[in-house]
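1st attempt posting a full record on here, be nice pls
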Amino acid sequence: MEIWDFLSTAILRGGMYSLMAVGLTLVFGVMNIANFAHGEFYMLGAFFGYFALSVLNAMNLPPFMAPLLSIAFAGIGVFIVAGVIERTVFRALRKRSKGQWLMNTFLLTLGISIILQNGAKLLWGAKYRGVTRMWPSESLDWLYGIGLPPDRLIGFLIAVVSIVALLMFLNKTNTGRAIRAVSQDETGASLVGINLGFIHTLVFAMSGLLAGIAGAALLSITPAFPFMGTMPLYKSWFVLILVGMGNIGGSIVGGLILGLLEAFATTYLSQYLGSGSQEFICLTVIIAILLLKPNGIFGKSVKSAVE
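the predicted structure (as C-alpha cells):
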C-alpha cells in the first residue's frame, strides 16, 4: 500500500512540475530569456481561475463544465497578459539591446515579477482565495484501495493533455515548425521568411498559457495568493538544471523525477529530516548535478529546445 501511495503522489506532482517546466524551457530555448516572472504567470492563472470559477458556479452549469471553463479562461487570460508583456517590453529591449541579452532579460523579468506580485496584492489583497474542491466527485478508491482525490488525478490528466497538445502543435503545424526553426537558428529562420516578432510573442504567450493552466488546475490544492509563484518558479528551475537548459522532452522527464524525489523525501525522510526534507533532497541533487554534470543529465545531446 505504501509503495502505491508513494508512486501515485510522485506521478501526480510530477505532471504539474513538467507542465510548469515545459513553459519555462520553451521561452529559454527559443528566445534565450531566463524568465523569473514565470511563477507570477502561475499566480495569475490561479487568480483568474478562482474568479472565473466563482462566476461559473453561480450559473448552474452541468457537472465538470464550470472547472473546465475556468481553467480554459485562466489559460487564455495569462496567454493574453504574457503576449502583451512580450510585445511591449521584450520587443523594445530586443531592439535596443546590443549585448548582455541574457543578463538584461534576467533583470527585466525579475522586475516584472515584483510588479505582478505587488499589483496582485493591490488589486486582490493579501488573503488566500481558494476552493474546497474543483470537481464534483469524492475520493476515488482504485488500484488496491488507494484513495485518490479527483482534483489531483484530473489535474494530472490536464497536464498530460496540455503537454501532448503542445508537442503535437510543435511537430504537426507550420507555426510549430517555424518555432522549431527559430530555436535552432534564428538568423536562418528570418532569412527564409519567418516572422521572428510573431514567433517570439507567440512563444512567450504560450509559456504563460501553460503556467496559467497549472495555477488554475491546482486551485483547490494551492489557493491563489499574490506571492505564491516563488515555489513553482523554484521547482521549474530545478527541473531545468536537472535535465539541461532548453530541452522540452527532458523537462517532461525532469518533472517526473522531481515528483519522485519529493514523494520519496515526504514518505521516507520526513521522519528524520522534518518538514524541510523535500528542500534538502532537492538542493542536494542540484549541487550534485552542478558539480558532476553542469549541462544537466540530457545536456550534451540537446541542440535546441524542441529536439
